[in-house]
Structures are given as C-alpha cells and as structure tokens.
Amino acid sequence: MPRNRLTTVPATGPKSRPTLADVRMWPATVSLPKAASALGCSSRHLQQRVKQGDSPVKTIPFGTRYVVITADLIRLLSGEERGAA
C-alpha cells in the first residue's frame, strides 16, 4: 500500500523550516543559508538578491561573505514595517 508523503515526512529535521520562535532564539547574526531556510528560499537566491542590492533583510559584509542581521529577519517574518534607516 503506498504511503502518503504528507504523513511520512517528519515535522522536524535538517531540512525543515524554522519557526519564528526558533529564529527569535538565534544569535545576532546568521549565515545566508540559515536565513534563507527561515525565509523559505534557497541560499543561492538570497545570495543573488544581496549581490543585486535588493535583499529583503539587512546584511553585513563579513570578509568574503555576508551575514544576516537576525533582528531584521524577525521583523520581516513578523510582518513589521521596516523603519527609516
């Protein structure tokens, strides 16, 4: 008998999307791949948006890579408006 994929996929695991409560417990900055998992997009897509200058979250250059400011990620996921900056 075929199994229904929706009932056999675990709710948590390495590929599961973090909840807003999870994100609120993250450190002040996180990697692009980790932020992308919270946004539900690929890290490559988020990296392209950062390079194009239209990232939905604030980032900081850190050596040869970027990190995402967790507070801004929380703001976006909470549906809050971005303040004047």
Write up what this structure looks like:
The structure is a single chain. With 85 residues, the protein is of the alpha+beta class. It has a domain at 28-79. The protein is 42% helix and 14% strand. The chain is built from 5 helices and 3 strands; from the N terminus they run H-H-E-H-H-E-E-H. It has helices spanning 5-8, 20-24, 32-39, 43-52, 70-78; strands spanning 29-31, 59-62, 65-69. It has a 3-stranded antiparallel beta sheet. Helix 3 (32-39) packs across helix 4 (43-52). The chain starts with a helix and ends in a 7-residue tail after the last helix.
Q: Supply the helix-strand structural class.
A: alpha+beta
Rg, rounded, reads: 15 Å
Count of DSSP-assigned helices: 5
Mean pLDDT: 85
Q: CA-to-CA gap between the ends?
A: 57 Å
From the spread of the alpha carbons, the general shape counts as globular
